[in-house]
Amino acid sequence: MVPERRSGRIDIVAAVEGEDERIRSIASLRRQRERERRQQELARLRSGQERVVREVVIPETITVQELANRMAARGSEVVKTLFRMGVMATLTQTIDADTAELVVTEMGHRPKRVSESDVELGLEGTPDTEADLKPRPPVVTIMGHVDHGKTSLLDALRQTDVAAHEAGGITQHIGAYQIEVPGGQKVTFIDTPGHEAFTAMRARGASVTDMVVLVVAADDGVMPQTVEAIRHARAAGVPIIVAINKIDKPDARPDRVRQELLQHEVVVESLGGDVQEVEVSATKRINLDKLLEAILLQAEILDLKANPDRPAEGTVIESKLDRGRGPVATVLVQRGTLRQGDIVVAGTEWGRVRAMLDDRGRQIKEAPPSLPVEILGLSGVPAAGEHCIVVPDEARAREISEYRQRRAREKAALAAGAGRGTLNEMLARIRAGEQKEVAVVVKADVQGSAEAIVATLGKLGNEEVKVRVLHSAVGQITESDVQLAKASDAVILAFNVRATAQARELAQREGVDIRYYSIIYEVADDVEKLVKGKLAPVQREKFLGYAQVLQVFDVKKVGKVAGCRVTEGVVRRGAGVRLLRDGVVIHQGELSTLKRFKDDVREVQNGYECGMSFANYDDIKVGDVIECYETETVAAA
């Protein structure tokens, strides 16, 4: 007998009694759904609408809606898939790459993981073949001491330009310019306001210049800034041509300049070296042709070439915000040809080149290699030294710009929250094998100390890691020293000298480590630990404050007492003190008294006056500075 089909509601008893039948019903329902799905697939195959399996690019983070777009699926489907995985998300919510990969796989597509930084891949294009390279004009930077005639020489060289005579002189100067010498060759000059800009560009990895013309006055000789210019040129790894200027003056002594340059390892050709030297006079226009010949000869030796038939790449020499024209950048084209209408990315900024102007203010349509041009049309003002690269479309330019801006913000946030761990970072890089040399800048109180430290450091190093002294000099640490250390990722070693307030602020801002010493062997120990990749010293000095000596009093039974005002930080009894005169340490010891009015106090804060005297030391003068510090123990990392 066939059982009757059940109809109507099911009560609890019936449900319990008919449990097996209910399970069979659910199983049959599943089979039915599977049949329907197969029939739909079959219908789709018959109609030619085969299921498309896409390769979905997944960055480090992505919104649900963007992920749905990349899979060509409805946003609600992606939300449902996430819900089944236990993730509650809306269309505008951001999910990580791992979750996105699971969703893509679940929905039957192929995931492709990429890093956020991949937007910059292939940006600089393919390397040039030898057949594509063509000769290009040399790029020359003129450096030297400020009063040695650098500007006069630049002006005199500009007037040798054949085209300038035809145009009635240069009407506009944009920080870099190109001249045509009588022989028909072209030379590009970069006009840097001192070596700071040169250093800033090198700090960003911009190898802009091919050679440096070092201007030295024949009547003045080698000056501190001349030495700094030599160090900067050496650190950049570019050849030097010495221009001995002002030879028309009665007290000119060119031979003395040659001898002084020997002390800084610049051996000119007349003394058997390989550095070209030319005696010139900018005001009397003597031997300017010989200087240009020397530049062209050096360019011939360097065999300078570039491929003009490719998308342009260059470097921002300088930039400004012009009230009428908006952001304006002076770009030196290094590879390819820059054309009006090209879309460029310069650092964190991007834009379409609306107009290009040469160094005479004339509009031009295209700029070949080694030509400096002003470009208009960028979204903002890029920093000097940033690379400027042509990209195929606006979408790519915007994507790169947004990524770099985000990275810059993150870097700034990290820098704001991080301490000065430069020495430890260098140790980590050496251990990782990333850094094969330890770069240092040495500043000392006397020349003998500086030479002794340099000689000691010269003996350090091994096959893996070398010690390189970028610069050594006498006197307090200046902003120039910090700039040089920043550009070369170096540590500043200060022996019985201190940094100026501006240099100290710059060092803190840029993360440059200044190490203070009063014993030479401690310098050697520290650097040797760097070389061997060992831990940083356990004892470390912590700066507390400065006090300026306003008056000096003679007090019976005590001796000389300095009436001081605390100008920075705090002065604390029991801490170590040093007496500084013109930025040089002349005494190191401890305080015997610290008073506010007539009361002994433990510490005095910034802005307050106090009385101080040293234990067993009386040579205190008005204008001296008292530095207060304490030694702290740092846990070995």
UniProtKB/TrEMBL annotation:
The keyword Cytoplasm applies. It is found in: Cytoplasm. InterPro entries: EF-G-like_DII, EFTu-like_2, IF2_II, IF2_N, P-loop_NTPase, Small_GTP-bd, T_Tr_GTP-bd_dom, TF_IF2_bacterial-like. Transmembrane segments: none annotated. Keywords: Cytoplasm, GTP-binding, Initiation factor, Nucleotide-binding, Protein biosynthesis. GO terms for molecular function: translation initiation factor activity. SUPFAM superfamilies: Initiation factor IF2/eIF5b, domain 3, P-loop containing nucleoside triphosphate hydrolases, Translation proteins. Residues 135-303 form the Tr-type G domain. The keyword Cell cycle does not apply. Residues 109-136 are annotated as: Disordered. Its main location: cytoplasm. GTP binds at residues 144-151, 191-195, 245-248. One of the essential components for the initiation of protein synthesis. Protects formylmethionyl-tRNA from spontaneous hydrolysis and promotes its binding to the 30S ribosomal subunits. Also involved in the hydrolysis of GTP during the formation of the 70S ribosomal complex. Belongs to the TRAFAC class translation factor GTPase superfamily. Classic translation factor GTPase family. IF-2 subfamily. PANTHER family: TR-TYPE G DOMAIN-CONTAINING PROTEIN (PTHR43381:SF5), TRANSLATION INITIATION FACTOR IF-2-RELATED (PTHR43381). This is Translation initiation factor IF-2. It comes from Caldovatus aquaticus.
